[in-house]
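Notes from the 1:1 (GR / supervisor)

We went over the backlog. Supervisor wanted to see one worked example end to end before approving the batch request, so GR pasted a single chain during the call. The sequence is below; no edits were made to it. Supervisor asked that the structure be written out right there so they could see what the output format looks like.
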Amino acid sequence: MMVETKTHIHSWRDIFITFKMAFDPKKMFLGYVGLLISLLWCVMAVSFFSALKIINVSPFFIIKIILSPMRENCPIHGSNFSSVVAGFSGGGFVVFVIIVLGLLAIWSLLGGAITRITALDYARDENVRLMDAIKFARKKFWSFFWSPMIPFIGVFFFGLCNVIGGLIGRIPVLGELAVALGFPFAFIAGLMMVFVGVIGVLGMCFMYPTISAEGSDAFDAMSRAYSYVLSRPKQFCMYCGIYIVYGIICLSIVAFSAWLVIHLSFCTVGFGMGEKFYAVKSYILQRCDIACLGFCMKPVDKSQTAASVLGGWSLKFLAGMLIVYIFFIKLAVWNFLVNYVFSAKTVIYFLLRKEIDSTNFSDVYLEQSSQNELGSDNVQDDNLKSISENARNDF
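Structure output shown during the call:
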């Protein structure tokens, strides 16, 4: 039985299909799970280290990022995050590294599964099962985990070389002479830090797609990331420019749709419920402006909001449930952004791989079980062909 497959243009215009690919139910589920676990991990880690007085950061700062209006998120992130980083001590930096490593571990599994689903969908038009994608990401977990860290390890190594040279300079006379004569090596190390860091960060977007498509390790992902950025810088910049601009447009549409859902729901239910619902809404707005997703004309002035005291437990329960519902709607917007980024970068990887390595789009690593299934399908097709040929000969 012949199965009609989808067709892709296999050009830069395929970046535009990533909007639809981001809404794959399996990816949406993985994105939701990843965001919830990431949020839980950050809150727990910040709470734990704050209780130990190692850092002075409220765990509600993490939740505020999700609940605050998207229009206000950028200045909130910029000012608060910079102030937090500026106040980091040695212990605070260690806590920051621990949190980042935890997030990297979470997305090494879930992000790897998302890129695996995208790779098979785009290259072979295959609808891979959710558990198969997770199993693949679990087998390649350490490759997914270490590949984004390699550029930072390289920068740390060359930086450490300069630090050691500076320590040698503390030796009287001989150390100073050694630093004076060997300082060109410090410039070389600085050049390597710039090269390894900048190109590594630019090419980091290809590391997960490389592992998902090729079934390779972290070093192959690193080499392809550097190679693709340096070999086709014009195509890389063009593809990334299209993906960023198109992503901003798509994110605006999704965020506006989510805001419209919230706004219309509040207006219609409030029209029917009357003053009680408006009291609940005022009660919520006194605590967090969550009813806006970045398209409000102006921020809500909480000082002008009528003070609302909800006497009954049922109204407080209603207010709490509304916050939970809106939280998940807002999380869906972030979920779309995560899935879009992983999907678009996977498609861009296949486009650059075709241009640079002349590799066929359908060339994707398949595990042994998948190969056996494909082999059995081919055997069945051959049997059907032989049966039809024998039937024609008998006729």
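Supervisor's comment: The radius of gyration is 27 Å.
Batch request approved.
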